[in-house]
Amino acid sequence: MKVTETFLKGCFVIEPKVFGDKRGNFFEVFSQKIFEEKTGLKIEFVQDNQSISQRGVLRGLHLQKGKFAQAKLVRVIKGSVLDVAVDVRKNSPTYGKHFSIELSEENNKQLFVPRGFLHGFSTLEDNTIFSYKCDNYYHKEAEDGVIFNDKDLNINWKLEKDDILLSEKDKILPTFLEFKKLK
Fold first, then answer.
1. Residue ranges making up the domain that contains 64
2. Which pTM does this prediction carry?
3. FRET partner for 64 with CA separation of 20 to 30 A, picked from 49, 70, 78, 86?
4. Torsion over CA of 161, 148, 169 and 45, rounded to 10 degrees?
5. Where does it sit, as one GO cellular component term (predicted)?
6. Cβ neighbours, 10 Å, residue 174
7. How many domains, the chain?
8. How many Cβ atoms sit within 10 Å of the Cβ of residue 182?
9. How far is it between the farthest Cα atoms of the chain?
10. How many angstroms separate the CA atoms of 109 and 101, rounded?
């Protein structure tokens, strides 16, 4: 398993070693032992989530705040997404910076998003299955986020504006400037 830290401290790209032959393939999705050895982080996942989305669905940018903050290990089982993590940790030298990566069933890459990050993804193919492990339980009252098309973050979601499908909740998220004022 290859583990590479992004320019955002604590945010890692994980690439499993895939063993394939004419029958198909096999790979270890996650090993806590290897993860801890390669990152120096102790993690205990307590909740697994999964979504199925059509092309154009954009989920985010979300986070859980306070004692309900979550670290996530995300991956695509079927299809592909553009996955985005935004550092919103106070006093971080990369505060307000984002990292994006395409995750797909072909590349089997995963992204570890630490606590203190906004997270979101845009679905690039129909019937994409997105899976994520969380190190803390979801708590509705701890939800927070930033609007996907914030001009200061300037994220390219790899979708045309007219193709983007948002939840009602995601349409009314605050701007990054409003989010920063509340912190």
1. 2-182
2. 0.93
3. 78
4. 130
5. cytosol
6. 15
7. 1
8. 8
9. 56
10. 9
CATH code: domain of residue 47 = 2.60.120.10
Confidence band for 75, pLDDT divided at 50, 70 and 90 = very high
Residue type, 122: S
Give the pLDDT confidence score for residue 20 in this predicted structure: 87
Residue 37 clears pLDDT 90, i.e. is over it: yes
- What 3 state SS string does the chain have? CEEEECCCCCCEEEECCCEEECCEEECCCCCHHHHHHHHCCCCCCCEEEEEEECCCEEEEEEEECHHHCCCEEEEEEECEEEEEEEECCCCCCCCCCEEEEEEECCCCCEEEECCCEEEEEEECCCCEEEEEEECCCCCHHHEEECCCCCCCCCCCCCCCHHHCECCHHHHCCCCHHHHHHHC
CA separation for the pair 33, 79 (Å, rounded): 28
d(CA 91, CA 180): 12
- What would the pLDDT profile of 79-130 be if each residue is shown by its tens digit? 999 999 999 998 999 999 999 999 999 999 999 999 999 999 999 999 999 9
